[in-house]
Design goal:
Length: 97
């Protein structure tokens, strides 16, 4: 992340400082831009699978305002949307044959 001022210092105690910084910038009418890198850029956030699962779990919960209700609702909607999309895809393929 690249900033004109040192926003990482301001939000370094946050669970998801990138989300907090984006919210802060948007609140202050700043433009934000998300760019992807290529294989020349690397960043290791976690040392293993368990650490990654724990880290992403905290981040996802934080994004939903620490609300387990919203988090569970999000997963239910996405799970059933995937099932529904799969059902329609299979039905469509069946009709074509």
């Amino acid at each position: 992340m690249l900033f004109k001022n040192n926003l990482h210092e301001k939000f370094k105690q946050s669970i998801a400082e990138d989300v907090e910084i984006a919210r802060y910038l948007k609140k202050n009418n700043e433009r934000i831009l998300c760019l992807t890198g290529d294989e020349r850029l690397e960043c290791r956030m976690y040392q293993g699978l368990n650490e990654a699962i724990n880290g992403f779990s905290r981040t996802i919960k934080f994004i939903f305002g620490n609300s387990y209700f919203l988090l569970i609702l999000f997963w239910i909607i996405n799970f059933y949307s995937l099932i529904l999309a799969t059902f329609f895809f299979i039905s469509y393929e069946f009709l074509l044959n």
